Amino acid sequence: MSNKITLKSIAKELNLSVATVSKALKDYKDISEDTKQKVLEYATKFKYKPNSFAQSLRSNESRIIGLIIPEIVHHFFSNIINGVIVTARKKGYFVLVMPSEESYEDEVNQIKLLTEKNVDGILVSLSNDTINYSHIKQVINSGVPVVLYDRISKLISASKVQIDDIQAAIKATEHLINIGCKKIAHIRGPLKPQTTIDRAKGYRQALQDNNITYDKNLVYNAENMSYEDGYNLAELILREHPEVDGIFCFTDLVAMGALKKLNELGISIPEQISIVGFSNWFITQTSSPTLTTINQPGFLIGQEACNILIEEIHAKRDNRPFEHKTIKIPTELVIRESTK
Amino acid sequence: MSNKITLKSIAKELNLSVATVSKALKDYKDISEDTKQKVLEYATKFKYKPNSFAQSLRSNESRIIGLIIPEIVHHFFSNIINGVIVTARKKGYFVLVMPSEESYEDEVNQIKLLTEKNVDGILVSLSNDTINYSHIKQVINSGVPVVLYDRISKLISASKVQIDDIQAAIKATEHLINIGCKKIAHIRGPLKPQTTIDRAKGYRQALQDNNITYDKNLVYNAENMSYEDGYNLAELILREHPEVDGIFCFTDLVAMGALKKLNELGISIPEQISIVGFSNWFITQTSSPTLTTINQPGFLIGQEACNILIEEIHAKRDNRPFEHKTIKIPTELVIRESTK
Q1: Residue B52 is part of which domain span?
Q2: Within a domain: residue A84?
Q3: Per-residue buried b or exposed e for A219-256, using 16+ beta carbons within 10 Å of the residue's own CB
Q4: Does A1 touch chain B (CB under 8 A)?
Q5: Cβ(A68)–Cβ(A122) under 8 Å?
Q6: Cβ atoms < 10 Å from Cβ of A49
Q7: Residue of chain B whose alpha carbon sits nearest to that of A66
Q8: Of A111, B54, B76, B255, which residue is most buried, by most CB within 10 angstroms?
Q9: What does the alpha-carbon distance between residue B41 and residue A200 come to, in Å, rounded to a whole number?
Q10: Are A202 and A256 contained in the same domain?
Q11: Residue B335 is assigned to a structural domain of this protein
């Protein structure tokens, strides 16, 4: 007979039920400190090593959470991945990272795979392609906790973690107004995601608050959210509106492209045109001139989203009610050389 | 009684053993195509949904691989993560990403956690702190396949995927020689990792091959591998060796810092000093001037490492022998504005 220490053998030895031993080892609230102490000492002494599969089967917990992320090679999203993984590790959870690559189909597929893998919960940032949310509602209805981060939808009933894009865009645009820009263009992103919509709203709001007439012809669309978009649109803006003296870009990558083109055209920044980006990617510190931007704290977003998800997982496990939370992470303007 | 379709009920219905049904669903080689077809049709018709925990317990396969990575917020490593995850997904594997944050202790701890989680295999890039390899040898000895990528050690018996750092560094240094640089400095990284050692070797080799005397005073050390290191060392080089007309930096981030300082000091690049980086981070395309560098294909490294690991996992599962492979991924010089 094997001398392997199992939950059963511990239970027998200590005259407890297997369920009590299991719960004690997992630090459940309904087990007394005395019992926990006794079980832990015994388990440690006899080097109890749980079999992770068997353990999962018994507890129906995998201690794994899924992370659906639109892109991996992306400064902001990398920071979120890092925040999620570091936070999850501290609480004893593993993270399966699944990139949707901005595709609705991939997102649906990855979420399906994660539920088949019996993850304890899922963190989701919607792809730019996603307009139907039934795949996410289905997961929530099946009892798996979901927290949305960054790219959320108001139509999904779940906890949400994001920045206040409207307020951040107001901050960015007002900075341009305050330093004396009279004709401010906005380069916005694709039409669907709420983040882009809100940043465009904030731009408009700031103009109105400062008695500057909003002119829709000064709003340009960076459909691919790319460096090349910024590069090409900067030239277009100059041609169509040579009087523009400030540009607020909805993301740093696009701003960096615009900066590059303006440098090439011999436009002096910030003297002739001031530029503000959004996100505070590392590259904004390395360009000439360095880029003024909004700091969007990815690590913190990942950390908060992960914490809330684990709270909800624990509440579900312990049959406690859980109220969804909506967290807005604060942002700040980082002033650098690209604005006067 | 539940009508749930299980392996057992399928086996009973088709008059097969449970093991045969299980193997058929997993496309094992020792099951006939006829049987596979029959099982698959039945499973599909009655919507058989495997319980992932029970499945793992039975098969002793988790379909999960672990990825130990020194840093997450890092352009090159992000590309590797992406390559690994995309490749793993195509082959039906999930990936647990575990950052060592360049710490030996974290690396040991993360690997221990992964084995407790019963992952099918582990991909490892050693932290810069790691000089003892017993934690990795132990995993290999326990029968879990390991593939080393990027930061490898010759002292570990496992498959390895990396670039040829010596050849790449020769290419970078010879480019500086070919464009007419007479006094070429090298900014190297910390002393331990093989990658840094090999890049410094390649620098020395290229000088010797071209009858240029190697001068150890022209080799500077970027201990933190940081932007600030490059920024500070550029000034030091100018002060100690004003005759330097070329700098080969062991990594792009450090090169970008040096570029920034030289720009600030009014040194014209490439006219007075040419600079070559290493890795082809995205930022090298956005600086002024843009940076000449060595393209280190992260996605490809991740893809190859993952493919070999899964090959070894399958060989082990099927009791086939597996010979370790050492793959050198080709690199290329990307010439941009920072060299004449």
Answers
A1: 7-59
A2: yes
A3: ebbbeebebebbbbbbeebbeeeeebbbbbbbbbbbbb
A4: no
A5: yes
A6: 11
A7: B96
A8: B255
A9: 52
A10: yes
A11: no
Distance from CA of B208 to the nearest CA of A (A): 34
Residues A274 and A319 in one domain: no
Look at residue A1 in the predicted model and tell me its pLDDT. 34
Q: Is B82 on the interface with A (CB under 8 A)?
A: yes
Q: Is the pLDDT of residue A119 over 60?
A: yes
User: What are A307's two structure tokens?
Assistant: 């914490």
**The one-letter amino acid at B330:** P
Residue type, A111: I
The two three-digit tokens of residue B274, written as one number = 């040419």
**Statement to judge: residues A131 and A223 lie in one domain:** no
Residue type, A323: E
Q: Tens of pLDDT along A80-112?
A: 999 999 999 999 999 999 999 989 999 999 999
- Does an H or E element contain B156, and which? none
pLDDT at B1: 35
Strands A94-99 and B121-124 turn out to be: unpaired
Q: How close, in Å, is residue A253 to chain B by CA atoms?
A: 9
Nearest to B85 among A52, A57, A72 (CB): A72
Rounded alpha-carbon distances, angstroms, from residue A109 to A98, A112, B109, B192: 10, 5, 32, 43
Q: Tell me which DSSP letter residue B220 carries.
A: E
Q: Which residues pair with A333 in a beta bridge?
A: A294
Q: What ipTM is given for this predicted complex?
A: 0.78
Q: Which of A25, A65, A94 has the most B C-beta neighbours within 10 Å, making it the best mutation to test the interface with B?
A: A94
State whether A94 and B75 contact (CB < 8 Å): no
For residues B292 and B171, membership in a common domain is answered with: yes
Give residue B30's pLDDT. Answer: 83
Is B340 part of a structural domain of the chain? no
**CATH number of the domain within which B108 lies:** 3.40.50.2300
B301 closest CA partner among B147, B95, B169, B193: B147
Residue-wise pLDDT tens digits, B68-120: 999 999 999 999 999 999 999 999 999 999 999 989 999 999 999 999 889 99
Per the structure block, which two tokens stand in for B227? 């932007």
